Amino acid sequence: MAPPHGNDGHVFRPELRPSRRTLLGSIAALGALGAAGCTRVAAASGNGGELLDRLRAQGVVRLGIAGEIPFGYIDKDGHLTGEAPELAKAVFKRLGVDRVQPVPTEFGSLIPGLNSQQFDVVAAGMYVNADRCKQVIFADPDYQMLDSFIVRKGNPKGLHSYRDVVAKKAKFATGTGYAEIQYAVEAGYKQSDILIVPDQVAGLNAVEAGRVDVFAGTALTTREVVKKSAKAEATTPFAPLVKGERHVDGGAFAFRPTETRLRDAFNTELRELKRSGELFRILRPFGFTEAEMTDLTAKELCGQ
Q: Domain Solute-binding protein family 3/N-terminal: where (predicted)?
């Protein structure tokens, strides 16, 4: 998730709402496709940017994805899918843009890639936080999410929170750039002692092999990745503490700061999909529940 997440304290909401699996082979196969498929768009100018008009004229929008299940990835048949790409297809079609084109990259390269115009929008389930809000503008979140741990069967160390991890001196791992890094540090875990792995699959492997006691990720991805594991399980979802308050994260599409017109048009269609229930129908096949639908706003999560 871009550079390690900043923290912006928000009171946890009762209505809830990532981790991600990198398909390196698929990314390699489509990396050239995404890069070669179209030329770069010139810098936006004018009243909130002209990108929406250009996308309508071109009939295609380039999506920055990070090869992470279930947020945005290439499936085994070579097709683009995931909650964010499927939502992008619906929203951009309503905006008059018929096609989406994947541009796979590493998660930490999404914001730099967006701002250097390698693609038009980040469609990767990216958490909204204050640090990122200084670099990009976000649509309102399309989902909200709690954290969860992957632990060995039976949870022998009784790990249910970051404070438990610190108190019980557990060996702790999480993913590259994940928000969970900062949540652990805030609870008192030494950052240099955290094992950083590529994604939740690597995290599961580390727990199963006994290299760590716990891997932290989102409630959605931890519960999905352990389904076929005979050695590990996911803990009950919980809200991490940020500045002493329970905190809920929200994931959203990101746009270049100049593209307020496109962001606002996206938000208009997103609100309608939420109102009609279509958003949940799009996200449900990827493991999302009604508890992970949200009315959080980007403004709230940006701390404005």
A: 60-290
Cis peptide bond prior to 70, omega within 30° of 0: yes
CA distances (Å), origin 42, targets 83, 113, 120: 28, 14, 11
Query: Which option is the CATH number for 50-144+249-302: 3.40.930.10, 3.40.30.10, 3.40.190.10, 3.50.50.60?
Result: 3.40.190.10
Please give the average per-residue pLDDT across 28-55, as a whole number. 55
Tokens of residue 206, six digits: 């580390």
Distances (CA, A) of 255 to 16, 27, 124, 175: 25, 22, 12, 24
Long-range contacts of 28-36 (CB under 8 A, 24+ apart): 29/74, 29/78, 30/74, 30/78, 30/102, 30/104, 31/103, 31/104, 31/105, 33/101, 33/102, 34/62, 34/101, 34/102, 34/103, 34/104, 34/119, 35/103, 35/118
Q: What are 224's two structure tokens?
A: 């999905």
pLDDT per position as a tens digit, 163-174: 999 999 999 999
Ranges of CATH 3.40.190.10 domains, the chain: 50-144+249-302, 147-246
Give the torsion through C-alpha atoms of 243, 245, 246, 252, to 10 deg.
-60
What is the CATH code for 147-246?
3.40.190.10
Look at residue 68 in the predicted model and tell me its pLDDT. Answer: 85
Q: Is there a contact between 282 and 86 (Cβ–Cβ < 8 Å)?
A: yes
